Each structure stands twice: as structure tokens, then as C-alpha cells.
Amino acid sequence: MTVKEFCKKYQISQQAVYAKIKRKSAQLDGHFTKSGGQLVIDEFAEKILAPRPPDYFLLEKNKNLQEALNKKDTELYNLKYECDRKMKKYEDLKNELAEKNQKIENLQTDIAEKSSEIENFTNQLAEKNLKIADYEKSAAALSEENLKLSETVRLLTDEILNRDKKIEELQNRNAELEVAAKKPFGFPSKRG
């Protein structure tokens, strides 16, 4: 039988047969020949090269391994799905974080602007407080000056009143003198 016929009979690849021939070359020595460019094997070589009948334990083990592999494939698919879902959530959270960071930057800019405005208002308030303090000092000085002027006016008023009194006295005295001057100067008459 040729190697090609052997492979067809047992449904195995020629590479597997040639690899087995190479491994068992000492045992197969003299049990194969070449004919028409093809390798021909005898019955003894066929028994040596033929695949073993399937072992029930190995078949069961293979079945269990296949089921385990299928289970792992399902787990892998589920893990991949879960990983994709978590990556999507991660991307969403990353985008949300970027938006919040942008909002924070905008708020920080607003705070900096408001702080600058507050500082300007504080400086303006300080200037106005200084002006108010100057006005208060001026008002205090004017009040003091006003008190002095009021005292001066009071003194002048008192002086004017005293003068008016003296003038009135003088006018009364003058009136008396005029009345007296209109009376005839007379000497007492001597009658008697």
C-alpha cells in the first residue's frame, strides 16, 4: 500500500505519516520500499504506523476539555463584553471629567476676574474712605471755626446791644435835654 492510500484509509495527513516514519525508522527498517516515485509500506509497517483506536478515557477527556474550552470562550466573550462596557463607561466618565475640568477652569477664571474687581472696589473704597476722613477733618475744623465765629458773633451782638443801650440812653438824655431846652429859661420871679 502506498503512503497516499494509507493516509486516505486512516484519514490522516501525509506529513503526520512521514513524521512517524522518521521517528520509528529503526523499527520500520526493511518494511517500506519505493515504487514509481511513491513510498510503499508492508503490513507490518501499516500496523506500526496506523493510528491507535480511540481510547474512551481520552475521548471523554477531550470532550471535557472541549466543554471547558467552550465555557472559557463564553467567559472570554462575557469578559470582553464587560470590558467594552466598562471602557465605554470610562470614556463617558473621562469626557464628563474633561467637561467638569473645563467648568472648573471657567469658574477659576471668573473667580480671578471677580477677585480683581473686588480688589479694584476695595482700592476705590479705601480712596473714598480717605476722602471721607479728609472731609470729616475739614468738617471738624469748620465746626471749630464756626464755634469761634459764633462766639465772635455773640460777643459782637452783646457789644452792639450795649451800644444800642448807650445810644438809647443818649437819645433819651438828648430828648430830655431838648425838652429842657425848649422850656424858657427863666429866673424865679420875685413876688412877694
Structure description:
The chain is mainly alpha-helical. Helix content is 81%, strand content 4%. The protein has helices spanning 3-10, 14-23, 25-28, 43-49, 56-182; strands at residues 32-35, 38-41. It has a two-stranded antiparallel ribbon. The longest helix has 127 residues, at 56-182.
Summary, kept brief:
Helices cover 81% and strands 4% of the residues. By secondary structure, the chain is mainly alpha-helical.
Task: Describe the SSE topology.
Blueprint: H1 3-10, H2 14-23, H3 25-28, E1 32-35, E2 38-41, H4 43-49, H5 56-182
Antiparallel strand pairs: 1-2
Main beta sheet: 2 strands, antiparallel
**Which value, in Å, is the CA radius of gyration?**
68 Å
Shape assignment:
rod-shaped
Number of extended strands: 2
Please report the number of helical segments: 5
List the uncertain runs: none
Mean pLDDT, to the nearest integer, reads: 89
The helicity comes to over 70%
What strand order characterises the main sheet?
1-2
* Percentage of residues in DSSP E strands: under 5%
Helix vs. strand class: mainly alpha
Count of discrete structural domains: 2
Distance between the termini: 217 Å
Give the topology string: H per helix, E per strand.
HHHEEHH
